[in-house]
C-alpha cells in the first residue's frame, strides 16, 4: 500500500505555539520588502507564534532596546503598497565583529527569539549564516559572563535562519527573481517610455545608466523590454572594437528612418580589459563619430523608490508565508535556507550554496571568464542575453539562411498588452531564421478577406512598448470561413502559422486541426501563444497581458483605498474582468490586500456573504479604517456587484459605509508591463524556433512541400510550474471547461487561502505544494527554461 505523503497535511497541524520569530530587513532597500514583512508577521501570528520586528537591520539587533519590538496584526496594516522598508534598514559594521554578534545574541535570547527571517542581499544572508554557526559558542560566552542563565543554553540551543532575497539588482544565484527587481524594471521602463517621446521629437540619442554594479540584469531586461539599440553589462563586455560597431548600428538605424537611439548602460559596465565604460564616454563617442545630438540620463535611486509592482507584492507575500512554513519545519540539523522562485514555483535552497554560486560569478568576471559568468547567472540571464542579441542585431542578408518558407502571424480574440512585443519578436526571429514573414490584420476575419501582407524587420521597430494590438484583432473563429482561409493560404503559400491570443485562439487552433482532414492547406506547423488578461487558457499558468491587467487593478485599488484616508470607515466593492475566470480578482486581491474576493470557481452563498460582512465589521470596530472586496464579473448571476454593495451597505450601517467601482476596460489598456513585454518577447522567440524545427522535419523533398498532420505539429506553448511546454491542443481539450471558457484545474486557486489568512480569516491551508529543500545546480535543470518568464 502506498505511504501517505507526509507533506500533504493542512496548516492547522503546524503550530508555532511557543516559538518566537523575528523579522528584519538589511542592506539596500527594495520595493516589496514591506509585503514580505507583512506576510511573515501575519502568518507567524496565525500559527500562534510571537513575532518581533527588528528595526534598522543588524544595527537594531546589536543595539537592542526599542529596536526589537513585538509585532501585532494591526502594526502591518496599510504597508503592502508602501515602497522601501518601514522597519528600516542599515549597514552595520559592528555586526561584522564578534563583540557585535555577542550583543545581538544576548538581545535575542532575552526575548526568547530563536527563529530569524532575514530579508536582504547576499551580504546580509552570509552574515546571518555566520551568526547561526557561532550561536552555541556565543551563548556559552554569555553564560560565562553571567549575562544569561545556564538553562538558556539548552532552551535556546539552536538558531534557525530563513532568508528572502530583497535586491533590485536580481544578482543572487538560485532564484529567478528577487524581491524588488520587477518594481525597479517598472521605474526604468516608465522613464525610457517617457524619454522615447522627447528623443523622437528631436531625433536624439539617449544614453541611460541603470543600477547594477556587479550584475547587468536590469540593463539587459530593460533593453529587451524597450528594444534598445545597444546594451552594456558587466557579465559580457563587448569585443574589442565595439565602439565602431555600435556607431555603425546607430547610423544604420537612423538610415532606416528611425528618429531616435537608446543605449542602456549598467553602472558596472566594463570592457574586456576590466576598464569602466561610462555614460559620458559613450556620449562623447557618439557625438564625435556620428555628430548625433546626444543626452545622458542617470536614473539613480529612482529605481529603488515608488510603490511595489503587483508581481513583487505577490512574490513577497508568497515568500513570506513560505519562510514561516520553513521555520516551523526546521530542525537543529536543517541548514539555513533561502526561499526562492523557480519558474512559477516556490523552492527552498541551502543559503550558503546560493551565496557561493553568487561569489563564483564575480570571481569569473574578475578572471575574465565572461562566458562562464553568464552561465553561472542562470538560464534566465542566458536566455535574456541570447534573445536580445537575436532581436537587436540584424544579420546581413548574405549571412541569413534561405529557408523559402512563409510564416503568417496573427492576433485573435480581445487585445492584451504584450501582443505587439510578441509579434515583433516573431517577425525578427523568423527573418533571422531565413523565413518570409506575413502579418494578418484583424485575426481570422482579416485572413479570409485577404488582409495579408509581408512584414519586414523595420516594420516592427518600436512595437515592444505599445499597448493593444497593432495588427488588429477580432473574436471571429475560422470554422465558418475555413474554405476562404484555405484559399488565402494557398494563394500566399503559407507554410506555418503563429496565433497569438486568448481562449478564441485556442478554439481556433482546434478548428484548424479538425479542418486538416478536409483541407491539406492546414497540414502545416501551427503554434499558439496565450495572450489574454483573463489568464483563462488551458495548458499555461500565465498569459501575456495578465500582469499588465493586475498592475492596473492594484494601482486603482491603492488609489481608491487612499481616497478614504482620514475619512470615516469605508468598504469598497470593486468589480474586475475575467469572464468566468477568477484569476484577476483572486491574485489582484492578494496583491492589493483585499478582505474578500468572490469568484465563479469557489461557489458562495448568502451565509458566506453574511460571514464576510460580520468579519469586516469586527475588524472595522477594532483596527482597520478601510476594507476592500473584489468581485469577478461573472462569479454569480444573482449576487451581482449591486447586490453585494447593497448588502454590505445595509449590514454595515453604523460601522462603515460602502462605495462600489466597476473597473471595466481600463484593465485591458495601457502600456505593457516589463513582465509582459519580456514574457511575450521570449516565448514568441521560442515558438518561432519550434516552427523552424517543425518545418524542417515535415518538409517533403520529393513533393517540394510541407506536410504536417500529427497532433504534435499543432501546439500551445505554455508555462507549467517550472517548465515551458509545447502541448498539442487536442490533448488540452480534456482539461478544458468549454462552457465557462476556463481550464478545469487552475494553480492560482492555491493562493486564495493566503489572501484569507492575511485578511485574518481562519482557513485550511494545504502545504503539500510548499517548497522542498533542493540543491543549487551549476546548470539548472532543463525544465527551468520556464525562467524565460522574466
Describe this structure in words.
Strands 12, 13, 14, 15, 16, 17, 24 and 25 form an 8-stranded mixed beta sheet that branches. Strands 3-2-1-4-5-10-11 form a 7-stranded mixed beta sheet, with helices on both faces. β12, α14 (about 420-430) and β13 (about 435-440) form a beta-alpha-beta unit. Residues about 1-10 and about 780-790 have low confidence and may be disordered. The protein contains 24 helices and 27 strands. The protein is about 40% helix and about 15% strand. It starts with 19 loop residues before the first strand and ends in a 32-residue tail after the last helix. α15 packs across α16 (about 480-490). It is globular. It has about 800 residues and is α/β, with parallel strands linked by helices. The relative contact order is 0.11.
Question: Which tags fit this structure?
Answer:
single chain; 790 residues; alpha/beta; eight-stranded mixed beta sheet; seven-stranded mixed beta sheet; 40% helix; 16% strand; disordered N terminus; disordered C terminus
The end-to-end span amounts to: 42 Å
Portion in beta strands: 15-25%
Number of DSSP-assigned strands:
27
Shape: globular
What is the CA-based Rg, rounded? 27 Å
Number of separate helices: 24
Q: What kind of sheet is the major sheet?
A: 8 strands, mixed
Mean pLDDT: 91
Unreliable segments of 5+ consecutive residues: 1-10, 778-790
Subcellular location: Cytoplasm
Region (N-terminal catalytic PFK domain 1): 1-393
GO cellular component, one term: 6-phosphofructokinase complex
Catalytic activity: beta-D-fructose 6-phosphate + ATP = beta-D-fructose 1,6-bisphosphate + ADP + H(+)
Amino acid at each position: 500500500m502506498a505511504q501517505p505523503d507526509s507533506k500533504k497535511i493542512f496548516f492547522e497541524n503546524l503550530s508555532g505555539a511557543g516559538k518566537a520569530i523575528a523579522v528584519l530587513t538589511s542592506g539596500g532597500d527594495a520595493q516589496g520588502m514591506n509585503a514580505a514583512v507583512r506576510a511573515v508577521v501575519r502568518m507567524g501570528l496565525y500559527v500562534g507564534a510571537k513575532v518581533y520586528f527588528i528595526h534598522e537591520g543588524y544595527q537594531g539587533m546589536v543595539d537592542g532596546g526599542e529596536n526589537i519590538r513585538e509585532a501585532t496584526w494591526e502594526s502591518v496594516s496599510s504597508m503592502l503598497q508602501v515602497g522601501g522598508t518601514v522597519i528600516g534598514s542599515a549597514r552595520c559594521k559592528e555586526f561584522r565583529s564578534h563583540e557585535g554578534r555577542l550583543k545581538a545574541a544576548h538581545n535575542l535570547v532575552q526575548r526568547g527569539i530563536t527563529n530569524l527571517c532575514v530579508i536582504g542581499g547576499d551580504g546580509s544572508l552570509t552574515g546571518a549564516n555566520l551568526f547561526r554557526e557561532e550561536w552555541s559558542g556565543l551563548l556559552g560566552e554569555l553564560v560565562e559572563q553571567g549575562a544569561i542563565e545556564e538553562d538558556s543554553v539548552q532552551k535556546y540551543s539552536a538558531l534557525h535562519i530563513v532568508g528572502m532575497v530583497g535586491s533590485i539588482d536580481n544578482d543572487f544565484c538560485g532564484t529567478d527573481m528577487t524581491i524588488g527587481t520587477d518594481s525597479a524594471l517598472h521605474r526604468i521602463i516608465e522613464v525610457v517610455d517617457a524619454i522615447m517621446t522627447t528623443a523622437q521629437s528631436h531625433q536624439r540619442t539617449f544614453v541611460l545608466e541603470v543600477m547594477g554594479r556587479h550584475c547587468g540584469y536590469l540593463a539587459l531586461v530593460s533593453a529587451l523590454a524597450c528594444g534598445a539599440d545597444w546594451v552594456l553589462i558587466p557579465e559580457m563586455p563587448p569585443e574589442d572594437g565595439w565602439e565602431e560597431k555600435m556607431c555603425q548600428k546607430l547610423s544604420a538605424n537612423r538610415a532606416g528612418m528611425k528618429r531616435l537611439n537608446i543605449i542602456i548602460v549598467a553602472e558596472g559596465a566594463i570592457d574586456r580589459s576590466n576598464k569602466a565604460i561610462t555614460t559620458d564616454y559613450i556620449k562623447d563617442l557618439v557625438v564625435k563619430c556620428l555628430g548625433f545630438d546626444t543626452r545622458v540620463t542617470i536614473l539613480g535611486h529612482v529605481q529603488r523608490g515608488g510603490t511595489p509592482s503587483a508581481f513583487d507584492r505577490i512574490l513577497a507575500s508568497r515568500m513570506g508565508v513560505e519562510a514561516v512554513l520553513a521555520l516551523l519545519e526546521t530542525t537543529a540539523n536543517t541548514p539555513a535556507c533561502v526561499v526562492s522562485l523557480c519558474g512559477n514555483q516556490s523552492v527552498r535552497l541551502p543559503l550558503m550554496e546560493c551565496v557561493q554560486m553568487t561569489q563564483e560569478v564575480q570571481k569569473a568576471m574578475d578572471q575574465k571568464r565572461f562566458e562562464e559568468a553568464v552561465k553561472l547567472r542562470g538560464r534566465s540571464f542566458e536566455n535574456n542575453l541570447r534573445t536580445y542579441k537575436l532581436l537587436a542585431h540584424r544579420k546581413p542578408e548574405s549571412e541569413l539562411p534561405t529557408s523559402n518558407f512563409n510564416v503568417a502571424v496573427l492576433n485573435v480574440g480581445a487585445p492584451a498588452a504584450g501582443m505587439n512585443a510578441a509579434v515583433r519578436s516573431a517577425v525578427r526571429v523568423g527573418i533571422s531564421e531565413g523565413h518570409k514573414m506575413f502579418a494578418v490584420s484583424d485575426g481570422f476575419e482579416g485572413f479570409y478577406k485577404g488582409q495579408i501582407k509581408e512584414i519586414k524587420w523595420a516594420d516592427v521597430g518600436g512595437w515592444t512598448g505599445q499597448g493593444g494590438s497593432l495588427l488588429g484583432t477580432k473574436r471571429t473563429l475560422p470554422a465558418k470561413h475555413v474554405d476562404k482561409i484555405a484559399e488565402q493560404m494557398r494563394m500566399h503559400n503559407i507554410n506555418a502559422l503563429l496565433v497569438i491570443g486568448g481562449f478564441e485562439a485556442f478554439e481556433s487552433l482546434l478548428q484548424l486541426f479538425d479542418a486538416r482532414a478536409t483541407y491539406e492547406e492546414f497540414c502545416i506547423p501551427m503554434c499558439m501563444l496565450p495572450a489574454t488578461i483573463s489568464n483563462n487558457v488551458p495548458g499555461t499558468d500565465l498569459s501575456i497581458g495578465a500582469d499588465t491587467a493586475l498592475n492596473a487593478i492594484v494601482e486603482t485599488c491603492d488609489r481608491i483605498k487612499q481616497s478614504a484616508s482620514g475619512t470615516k470607515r469605508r468598504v469598497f466593492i470593486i468589480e474586475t474582468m475575467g469572464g468566468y475566470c477568477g484569476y484577476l480578482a483572486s491574485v489582484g486581491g492578494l496583491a492589493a490586500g483585499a478582505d474578500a474576493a468572490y469568484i465563479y470557481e469557489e461557489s458562495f452563498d448568502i451565509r458566506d456573504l453574511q460571514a464576510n460582512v460580520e468579519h469586516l465589521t469586527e475588524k472595522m470596530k477594532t483596527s482597520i479604517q478601510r476594507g476592500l472586496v473584489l468581485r469577478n464579473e461573472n462569479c454569480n448571476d444573482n449576487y451581482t456587484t449591486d447586490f453585494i454593495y447593497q448588502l454590505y451597505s445595509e449590514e454595515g450601517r453604523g460601522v462603515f459605509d460602502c462605495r462600489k467601482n466597476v473597473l471595466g476596460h481600463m484593465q485591458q489598456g495601457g502600456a505593457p508591463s516589463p513582465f509582459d513585454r519580456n514574457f511575450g518577447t521570449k516565448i514568441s522567440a521560442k515558438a518561432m524556433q519550434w516552427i523552424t524545427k517543425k518545418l524542417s522535419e515535415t518538409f517533403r523533398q520529393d513533393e517540394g512541400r510541407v506536410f504536417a498532420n500529427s497532433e504534435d505539429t499543432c501546439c500551445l506553448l505554455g508555462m507549467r510550474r517550472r517548465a515551458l511546454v509545447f502541448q498539442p491542443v487536442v490533448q488540452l481539450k480534456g482539461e478544458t471547461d468549454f462552457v465557462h471558457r476556463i481550464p478545469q484545474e487552475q494553480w492560482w486557486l492555491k493562493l486564495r487561502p493566503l489572501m484569507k489568512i492575511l485578511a485574518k480569516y481562519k482557513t485550511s491551508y494545504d502545504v503539500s505544494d510548499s517548497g522542498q529543500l533542493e540543491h543549487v545546480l551549476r546548470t539548472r535543470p532543463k525544465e527551468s527554461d520556464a525562467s524565460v518568464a522574466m
